[in-house]
Amino acid sequence: MRRNRRVDSGPEARVRSILHSRGRRFRKHAPIRTDERLIRPDIVFTRARVAVFVDGCFWHRCPVHGNEPRLNTAYWGPKLERNVARDRAVDAALAGAGWTVIRAWEHEQPETVADRVERALSARAAQAAVARALAAPRRASSAEI
Ligand SMILES: [Zn+2]
């Protein structure tokens, strides 16, 4: 039987459940189509355009735990390099499409990651409020009449 590779990973699921318990609503692995590629972040806030990835330390080469693999380096070295290069290309594609990208490591405290996500959501909400204010037709104040 083939295993589903997209099952909830521990840290990712914990971040999601914390955000959910704080009343945040999001989509899991929702596809985002940019000009360059189709991207499925771990947590997607569609309206706010915030995309969150909880990256595995080994697969994405965390600076703390992403040591060089000791076995079969000829295989793993280039493979992991490609992962990291793809991560950066994904970040660039999302940023180019107007998304805020948050990358967290699986070793980070889920609460800390959730805090970071909420700060990004607040920043996006503030930006949106400014954009709405600028787009709204100016009302003449009584002083101007
Ligand atoms: Zn790590």
> Which oligomeric state applies?
single chain
Query: What is the helix fraction of residues, given as a range?
Result: 40-55%
Bound molecules: zinc ion
The whole-number mean of residue pLDDT values reads: 88
Alpha-carbon distance between the two ends: 75 Å
Detail the poorly predicted runs: none
C-alpha-based Rg, rounded: 19 Å
Q: What is the SS-derived class? A: alpha+beta
Total strand segments? 6
Give, in spatial order, the strands making up the sheet with the most strands: 1-4-5-6
**Beta-strand percentage range:** 5-15%
How many helical elements? 3
The coarse silhouette is globular
The secondary-structure element order is HEEEEEHEH
Taking the sheet with the most strands, its summary is: 4 strands, mixed
Can you walk through the features of this model?
The chain has helices at about 10-20, 75-95, 110-135; strands at about 25-30, 30-35, 40, 45, 50-55, 100-105. The protein is of the alpha+beta class and about 140 residues long. The longest helix is centred in the C-terminal third of the chain and has 26 residues, at about 110-135. The chain is globular and about 70 Å long. The protein starts with 9 loop residues before the first helix and ends in a 10-residue tail after the last helix. The structure holds zinc ion.
